[in-house]
Write a structure and sequence with these properties.
The protein folds into two domains: 21-117, Tyrosine recombinase, N-terminal domain (DNA polymerase, domain 1, Orthogonal Bundle); 143-366, Intergrase catalytic core (hpI Integrase, Chain A), CATH 1.10.443.10. A three-stranded antiparallel beta sheet has the order 1-2-3. Strand 1 (212-216) and strand 2 form a beta hairpin. The protein is built from 15 helices and three strands. By secondary structure, the protein is mainly alpha-helical.
């Protein structure tokens, strides 16, 4: 049997297996098992085995924060990475204490335990450990590291990997199949766009062309106005206006629209049609490959870089660009608070502000250009 034919057969069999395994995602998503978990808690209350307050605390965490983010995901897809991104967002956007964050992880573990009892998952996966101590800056890419990241992605685009042994062991044979077909040029555009729009990892996967509008600032520079869709209702949940306007708008007009121009086409990786099940997981794993290739798996504090690091970098770059002026406008545009910016970004950037600002000015891929010369069009 030829290698091409064998590859095609394996790919088809994997698609069938996925279809059978996730035939009814609505019946096996995280929200379903959270409801089962709460039903069991009610029975425990009736038997006098559980305090009513514990039920209320868990319900509040689930309804307010956990389910809007993780509820739609298949219970078998909840892993360390998805929970880590969720906790990171809570820590950054809500400024919750370490003890509060630990309670969220415990609540998630309880729901996963419910699925384990029913045999839907083999075991509860390893989940993040929330450590006490000084508040580290969010894992971001310095301007020089960002350049290395883009260089690594460009190299993967020009020289697609054939030997996968050096990559993360969590990349299974299924992901390797996806990896061989992966468009690293689109990943390059994804990284640049994320850095210049402040999008969160939970937001990009449902972003379609219909959510994008062009506008011009008072100086005549073209901007993008992004109506960020709610992942549960698919209705706009807020407006995010790109601040690095020339790069984001130029990239969208000259690269993204030429790749997918339909009104309902997704901006990135439009071929992944089942966005709920696969988009975040697959792109997070491919982004990890880029980080490994750039030797930027973690930051200097040992914190793992994820796609959320792109938003962290966007915020840091803008603070450096404005020399920390205009925090209120930045907070409003990025849909966060000045308190969060001061605690998690400005306080850590201050000591090295001159060094990073110099990097920002000298790294060509971060400069501003009306003709978009910094957007790589070589693909």
């Amino acid at each position: 049997m030829s290698e091409a034919k064998e590859f095609a057969i394996n790919w088809y069999e994997e698609r069938l297996l996925e279809k059978r395994r996730f035939a009814d995602i609505g019946a096996e998503n995280f929200e379903t098992y959270s409801r089962k978990f709460q039903d069991r808690q009610k029975r425990q209350i009736n038997r006098g085995e559980l305090n009513q307050d514990m039920f209320k605390y868990d319900k509040l965490k689930l309804d307010k924060d956990i389910l809007p983010t993780l509820g739609h995901i298949h219970i078998g897809k909840i892993d360390y990475n998805s929970v880590d991104i969720f906790i990171d967002e809570l820590r950054t956007e809500r400024n919750l204490s370490v003890s509060s964050l630990k309670k969220y992880v415990v609540c998630i573990r309880k729901v996963l335990k419910e699925a384990e009892k029913e045999g839907i998952i083999i075991a509860v996966p390893s989940l993040p450990t929330i450590k006490t101590g000084n508040v580290n800056p969010r894992p971001w890419f310095s301007p020089e590291e960002y350049k290395r990241l883009l260089d690594a992605c460009r190299d993967l685009r020009d020289n697609p990997p054939t030997n996968l042994d050096k990559f993360d062991k969590t990349i299974t044979d299924h992901h390797k199949t996806f990896l061989f077909q992966f468009d690293w040029g689109e990943m390059y555009d994804f990284i640049v766009f994320m850095v210049h729009t402040f999008l969160r990892p939970s937001e990009w996967k449902f972003l379609q062309n219909k959510h994008i509008q062009f506008l011009h600032d008072p100086d005549g520079h073209e901007q993008l106005m992004i109506s960020v869709p709610n992942p549960k209702t698919m209705k706009a949940k807020g407006l995010s206006i790109s601040t690095s306007t020339e790069i984001a708008a130029d990239l969208y007009r000259n690269k993204i629209l030429k790749r997918h121009d339909g009104k309902n086409d997704y901006l990135f990786f439009n071929d992944i049609r089942d966005r709920e099940r696969y988009a975040t997981d697959r792109i997070s794993r491919m982004f990890r490959v880029v980080c490994q290739h750039a030797e930027l798996d973690t930051d200097r504090f040992g914190q793992r870089h994820t796609t959320y690091s792109l938003r962290h970098s966007a915020l840091c770059f803008q603070i450096l660009k404005t020399k920390s002026e205009g925090l209120f406008a930045l907070a409003k545009n990025a849909r966060t608070s000045t308190e969060m910016l001061e605690k998690f970004y400005l306080s850590h950037l201050s000591a090295q502000m001159p060094e990073f600002t110099e990097q920002l000015l000298t790294v060509q891929s971060l400069g501003s250009s009306q003709n978009g010369q910094n957007v790589d069009r070589s693909k």
